[in-house]
Amino acid sequence: MPDDMASARDEAERLFLGREDVVGVALSRRVSPEIVVFLKTGLPEIAAEIRKWGEKTGVDVSVKVTGSFRSAS
Amino acid sequence: MKAILKKPAQFELRRHRAEELLNVLTARFLQFPQRAKMIGKIVDENASFFLPKSREEAVPVAGLALREAAAGQAARITIFTTDPNVTLSSKLQARFADFEVKIEERHTGFFKLCLQGGDSVGYGVSGGATGTLGCVVKDSALDEYALSCNHVIANENSGTVHQDEVWSPGSKNGGTNADRIGLLNDFEMVRLGGILTNEMDAAIAKLDTNGGAVSQIRTVGTVAGLDSNPGYNSRVQKQGYRTKHTTGELTFKNMSLLLPFAGGNALFVNQYGLVSDQMGVFADTGDSGALVLNMRNEAVGLIMAVAGTGEIAAANPIDPVLKRFGVSF
What is the ipTM of this complex? Predict the structure, then answer.
């Protein structure tokens, strides 16, 4: 995983985590390195903003609707 | 010569009688009424002993065994009782005097499965949070601890160390104060508010009896060490109390997530995200605290949370957890 991906992930976390509908940010490497932003419901406005940020920065970013995280007990 | 042959024959006869009586008592106390039907003759002859009793009334007995007090001595029957106030031996001795077998009793309480990773564990109050025991861990003095989550055994930051009980099974799985396994010993405070970061949701309970637990995980076996830097998409497994043994992939690293606690959101960073590679989920409610291992049985993480869709389970990397409490497998 290139260092710039880790930096980009940190930037995505700073920009999006805590915003409405955003519940998590992570790195993944299913095929190639990418940033994944987890959304509670998939709010179109925030999903579009995340994709736009990816295009602008040249970083592979995807959104994934996961619902809210909850303690597993 | 005759006398030499006679003694072993008597010895064998007594052992045979002891075994026969053990079967009768096992049927009466542990298997009634199913087994009692199989030895109908003895049941008929002792109808008042067998028939008026219900299965529930047989509870004071946890087990029975044959014992020879010393080499060459006649076998005797030991009854393991669950109640120190119950005395059965003299009554049984009188009822089954024909067998000429000595009967003794020993108070043991009910037998339990040895505590292992994957068992249910919980905060020791009625209705207390319940999850999974990750594994028994040891400190440098070889004292044993149960490892699980703060939100499972430390009541989401509000537990009192050296005072609050931990039960196995946890209350939501039928546990009561009779199922105490130890006291909350230490926990990492989860910082709330969503700004300060957390790396773990973990706690340990000091077990009441050293040596009574097993440093193994059900189904999985012995923990073979640590994998402090698992690769992306590496295969992993866990044994949770709710969903039992599942396998999956470590799909996400450097995962940050917001997790709602009773006092507000908690921001967790540097977490692992795990996805099932089978039908169903990798983990679910009741699996918090389960240890995640790679397929070489090296510990990777501690299950903490699941996504609302169930698709992703979040786990704390295990290495910082072990270092925080100064324990190892």
Answer: 0.92
* A71 closest CB neighbour out of B151, B252, B256: B151
- What are the backbone dihedrals phi and psi of residue B26, each rounded to the nearest 5 degrees, phi first? -60, -45
Other CB atoms within a 10 A radius of the CB of residue B224 amount to 14
Contact B308 A1 (CB under 8 A): no
* DSSP-assigned letter for residue B69: S
**Interface A:B, Cβ pairs < 8 A:** 105
| Tens digit of pLDDT at every position of chain B (329 positions) | 444 445 667 778 888 888 888 888 887 777 665 555 555 565 566 655 654 455 545 557 888 899 887 777 778 999 888 888 878 888 888 888 888 899 998 888 877 777 899 999 999 999 999 999 999 999 999 999 999 999 999 999 999 999 999 999 999 999 999 899 999 999 999 999 999 999 999 999 999 976 666 779 999 999 999 999 999 999 999 999 999 999 999 999 999 999 999 889 999 999 999 999 998 999 999 999 999 999 999 999 999 999 999 999 999 999 999 999 999 99
pTM over 0.90: no
Gap from A56 CA to chain B (nearest CA, Å): 22
Detail the DSSP E strand segments found in A11-52. 22-28, 34-39
Residue B235 near residue B249, CB atoms below 8 Å:
yes
Nearest CA in chain A to B195: A18
CB contact under 8 A, A67 and B307: yes
